[in-house]
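Final report, section 2: Outcomes. Of the targets proposed, Aminotransferase is the one most frequently requested by collaborating groups, and we therefore present its record in full.
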Amino acid sequence: MKLPLQKATRKKQIKSKNYIMQEFLSNRVTSMATSQTLAMAAKARELKAEGIDIIGLSLGEPDFNTPDFIKEAAIQAINDNYNSYTPVDGYVELKDAIINKFKRDNNLTYNRSQIVVSTGAKQSLANVAMVMLNDGDEVILPCPYWVSYAEIVKLGGGVPVEVPTSVETDFKMTPEQLEAAITPKTKMLWYSSPCNPSGMVYSKEELRGLADVLKKHPQIVVVSDEIYEHINFVGGHFSMAEFEDMYDRVVTVNGVSKAFAMTGWRIGYIGAPEYIARACNKMQGQITSGANCIAQRAVITALEAPVSEISYMVDTFKSRRKLIIELLSEIGGFVTTEPEGAFYVFPNVSAFFGKNIKGHHIENATDFSLFLLEEAHVATVTGDAFGNPECIRISYAASEDQIKEAMKRIKNALS
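The predicted structure is given below as tokens.
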């Protein structure tokens, strides 16, 4: 009978000790929010460990295996004894492959001194924040934005300036909204297209409208996150750096995690004005040095392959998009647009706010997301994490059977 009491006492002691030790941590880390996508995934894993059948639609990770031709290149690199430190900004052969990729897919011309290879596109973004931002510099973030943008900006000393959009405007920021958000402290604009979490894609004309505003404010540098570039259902991707009058002010961020199903390989890269690329190289040299040698050799092969090699994944995502939109339309209270890229839907669920459902009081998107996890056993992510408190993000990087079962569970939980 004493054992449970001893365990409880021990847990209480550990919790108390941890609370005291928190005082020794930096303000930088204690003020930082935890990634909500990772937090929801962790909670889902806890429930799974208890024997509960959870359908995970929270993580932004393709459910495909890395293509065999890329894995074979990695095996060859191992057999060729690639095991030493790599250049901080990436192998020359990989930088050349990236340069050719930018030219082929984006009509962008970069040289080697403008390319920096990093341990994932997240590090690419962090590098840019660290080398560009001083305390108090403002960074405009069209909402919704990828979950880590705001915290990375804050880590660099910057101040996120959120520009709200809505399902009615397809979650796109207008030139008028951009102009209104700019102040003398504005240093940067960060956005993703295709967007995580909304799936929207800025057209060439829409980007030109934003660029025309930015022309009047030459101090602003743009970060264009294009990690979902190839998972695009509207037949065209445009990079803001393609505009001649914006080329010297845009950092183009990309990587292989999404389109090539290589999330765990951790390779991202930037094409940037040379002074920014050199600064990122300098910063990275003091943090991680060069990215993994085997992964870099594999990515050379990935980027040199024709885009058609991964079209089967895009076709599958497109089919799943159609399915999940149809099933969501059958559930009252969900208002959504049709995503133009990536593999997420971002429905507005504010119709459920203020209601009590099966003993759960739903006050906001976080409450609703937790309700779905606990009652429907479906893991999603609250829109609060993306700067939009009225929506939730649902990933359709899952099999059609899982999507059907998840939507059935949600419908039953709400009926």
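Residues 2-21 form the longest helix (20 residues).
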